Amino acid sequence: MRLKEKVAIVTGGGRGIGEATAKAFAREGAKVVVADLNQADVERTVAEINGAGGRAIGFVVNVTDRGKVEELVQTATSNFGRLDILVNNAGITADNTLAKMTEAEWDRVIDVNLKGVFNCGQAAAKVMVEQGGGVILNASSVVGIYGNFGQTNYAATKWGVIGITKSWAKELGRKGIRVNAVAPGFILTPMTDKMPEKVLEMMKDKSPLKSLGYPDDIAAAYLYLASDEARFVTGTVLSVDGGLVL
Q: Count of domains in the chain?
C-alpha cells in the first residue's frame, strides 16, 4: 500500500475530486479525515470509506474560519497521532464577466480559495515541522495558468495557489515537507454540472484525447504526489487536463 499508516486531511472531501481523493488514499492504507462544509456529504463519504474496509473520520469545517481549521488539524492528530498529508482541495466558483462581477462574488471566491488554503496550510505545517516532515498538496486549475472567460476571481485564486505552492516549497523543504499543486482541466464534478452542455462539449472537442476528465484522474495525481514515489518532487504544478491547452 502506497500510503500505509499515513494520516491525511482532505478538504472539500465530501464530493467530487475531494471525495475521490479521500477514497483513493484510504484504499492505499491512509487514515483519512474527510473535511467539508456539508455534513451530509461528509457522513456519506466517511461511511463509504469505512464500509469498504478503510479508516476515516469526518469533520465539518468552513476553511475560512481559522479557529475551526485549527480544530480540524487537532482532530486529526488527536485521533491518529500525527498528520502526514494535507490536500487543500476545497474551493468554489462565482462566475461573472469583469463588467458584471460584484464585490461579493470577488470576495467570496478569494476568501475560500486563497485564505482557506493559507489557513489550512499554515495549521498543518506547524504539525509537520514538529514531527519532521509531511506533504501539502494544493488545488490549482488550468484556469489559473491560462485564464478563462468569466472567471476573473477564480483564475486569480488558482494562479495565487501556484505562487503559494512555490513559496511554501522553498520555505518548508528544509523541514522535510514537500509542497506541490495539481492543475485539473475540465473535470466532471458537481462544480462543472452548472456549466452549459455546449461548453462542456466544446472543451471535450479541444482536448487531443477528445475527453473530459473524471475525479479519479485527479485523485491519482494527488496519490502519486502524496506517496514516496514523489519523494524528490516539490514546488511543481502537475497539469492533469487531457492536453486541453496544447
A: 1
